[in-house]
Amino acid sequence: MRVAVVGATGFQGGATARLLAERNHRIRTLTRKPDSERPQVAGTAFVSGDLANADDVRHLFERATHASVVMPLVYDAETVGTYARNIAHAARETGVRRLVYNSNTRVPESSTHVAAFETRRLAETVLRESLRGSGVELVVLRPPVYLDNLFSPWNGPALAKDGVLAYPLPADTPVAWISHRDLAEAVYAALTVDGVAGRTLDIGGARSLAGDELAEAFARGLGRDVRYVPLAPHVFEEGLARAVGPEAAAGVAGIYHYMASGAGPDLMAADDGGSTEALSVRPAPVDEWVARQPWQIWSDDTAAAS
């Protein structure tokens, strides 16, 4: 495949790009960063440009056979709509065979006032309507919450040193946790397998884990006691704002404010196994994922401080 990967400089798109490169597919991605600031993604060619510019997006898609799309941390409806239209038109014009859109989150059935949900719903709607009748197959993946969020400067030190797993979800919220690597496997399957064109799939782990169950899985993987502590969403938002800016942090945190309200208690839970069957993917159990991570880096005071 020759794959246009929208978002390859981010965590999720980057995981997809790395897996595609490992399997000897050719990858191109769009970036506004100068050469000196571009991350090293093996096997990836960079195209200078912006998702807001239709010509730039079309250039990215030239000669692509497939596309993998995840939107950046932008939650303005007009901007996201423009991005989605440019992507859809580029896919149509260049004859892409299949486009896989990762919504980056589950999306409630009914409309909400949460930008993180509604902009992703909008992008999905624009893509579906714009690609209808074009011959471009669309597959939509809706993941729950990423395990990699817990292997971070915000969570890693507390887990490694104190056995504290603090996260902005109520302790009784069931979540089908998934890793970036397993997301990439799901995207790869959605790009290649038969029978999924036109479908929207809630992907994730086969089993839902609430807070204490998640802590137990981490305890098995780490070989030490772990306790779950629900973090207030506003505290999470304040910390995230220091890393990604207040607008992006507010967008991301909107998901956790919604979950804390109790409006969608099962939104992030495991499905009935339909996505696993359709894609023939088996996400790793949480304890196995935990055991594979180099948690010792967070035990070092210098690493934790950085």
UniProtKB/TrEMBL annotation:
NmrA-like domain ranges (all copies) = 2-240
InterPro entries hit by this protein: NAD(P)-bd_dom_sf, NmrA-like, NmrA-like_oxidored
Instruction: Recite the UniProt keywords alphabetically.
Output: NADP
Asked whether the keyword NADP is assigned, the reply is yes
- Write down the Pfam families for this protein, in alphabetical order: NmrA (PF05368)
Q: Where are the transmembrane segments?
A: none
Q: Which family does it belong to?
A: Belongs to the NmrA-type oxidoreductase family.
PANTHER family to which the protein is assigned, alphabetical: NITROGEN METABOLITE REPRESSION PROTEIN NMRA FAMILY MEMBER, NMRA LIKE REDOX SENSOR 1-RELATED
Q: What name goes with this protein?
A: NmrA-like domain-containing protein
Organism, scientific name: Streptomyces chryseus
